[in-house]
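Lab channel / #folding
Pinned by the channel admin:
"Please post every new chain as: sequence first, then the structure tokens as a reply. Keep commentary short and put observations after the output so the thread stays searchable."

First post following the new format, from NK:
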Amino acid sequence: MKTTKPDDTIESVVDAVLEATRASPRQQRLLDLARFVSVILGALQIVIAMPDLLRAPGHMVHSSRHVGAFAIAIGVGLIYAGLYPHRASGLVPPLLALSAALAITCAVDIIHGRWPSELSVHLISPVSAGILWGVAHAVRPRDPASGQRRGPRSLS
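Reply from TO:
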């Protein structure tokens, strides 16, 4: 009968987990690029939102400041997700909801003959959602036994 030391078992489990979660060089380059793009999009979001936040008193200033503050929060979230990719999955649902809402409002504006002048600004949200989905998917842990990526943990 073979005896195993506890250290051998721990080392083999650690090795299996590390091997299962290791990305290929190509995957790592894509993840690094997606993280970089997330940080850039976050910074761009903050810069674009500043005029709304700092707008001089006038028509609908209060609403404009709320929109600016929300956009800055999204920008900070994008930067945070780029720096800490294991947190990216938490930002995907709000960005998808924001992207859907912006798409609907843009479509309504176009139907009524108003071309949104900030259409390119509205593209930041869906592009960011796609980038973050990719980052969140890439950093999901793999099951050491099957090598398959694990989904979200169940609450039960």
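NK: The mean pLDDT is 78.
TO: also worth noting, The chain has one domain: 24-138.
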